[in-house]
Prior knowledge:
Blueprint: E1 3-12, E2 15-25, E3 30-34, H1 41-49, E4 56-61, E5 64-65, H2 71-77, E6 79-82, H3 94-101, H4 107-120, H5 137-149, E7 155-159, H6 167-184, E8 187-191, H7 195-201, E9 204-209, E10 212-217, H8 219-232
Parallel strand pairs: 3-8, 3-9, 6-7, 7-8
Antiparallel strand pairs: 1-2, 1-4, 4-5, 9-10
Amino acid sequence: MLLELKNIHAGYNGREILRGLPLNINAGEIVCIIGPNGAGKSTVLKVISGFLYPKKGDIIFKNKDITAMESYKRMAHGIGYFLQGGEVFNDMSIYENLEMGGANIKKSVFKETVEDTLNLFPQLKNKLNKRAGLLSGGEKQMLALGIVLMAKPRLLLLDEPSAGLAPGLVKVIMEKIVEINRSYGTAILLVEQKIGQALKVASRGYLLKNGEVVFEGLPEDIRRAITKRAVHA
Ligand SMILES: Nc1ncnc2c1ncn2[C@@H]1O[C@H](COP(=O)(O)OP(=O)(O)OP(=O)(O)O)[C@@H](O)[C@H]1O
Ligand SMILES: [Mg+2]
């Protein structure tokens, strides 16, 4: 197992949001977290990336307890985090943005990592000297994902990578996610509002409600569980 969350309790300002969360991901898997607004999906990713420390529970990554580890060390350890909304350095060029993402990888693999990243997002290739702030929304989202990939993560946490994108681009970004997973064997934890799209690419998923896992299983079982819940709501 690559990542295991055991009985995670976490929240903000004394208010508990996650109530005893279990979650696990195997190496090379794509797993999705589905749930209504405010269910705690982003909070799960913050806990895994170290942006929020749990009040209780353990986080095991690559057989090591990382519960108390700082977020920058988790990144160096192989956890990549795409924040909700995506983040780029607007005043820097696209190339400089990628440099920032790869700041901690070995110098010897830097060049090939830039090449791999640009092959994945070819539309960025001929704009390397352009300021990131001048990119379109879709291009920024791709660059934000590229920055995270430059750190060569073993586990990629994606918080609504398709948010705000036109339907055509949503499809593209989902294809990229599958391509990253297939090409590098990167495990992916995907949080998505677009349930249909997420269940199409994931091999397993968690249904989260009020900070609790209310269902866990294969995509088709999750689809059925959602329909059943909607009927009984
Ligand atoms: N920084 C924060 N400070 C205080 N409360 C917060 C903070 N971030 C989130 N919350 C609260 O925690 C709860 C869960 O939020 P979270 O962002 O994890 O939900 P989500 O499932 O990602 O929702 P969405 O689908 O809208 O992105 C919400 O009630 C939210 O208001
Ligand atoms: Mg969220």
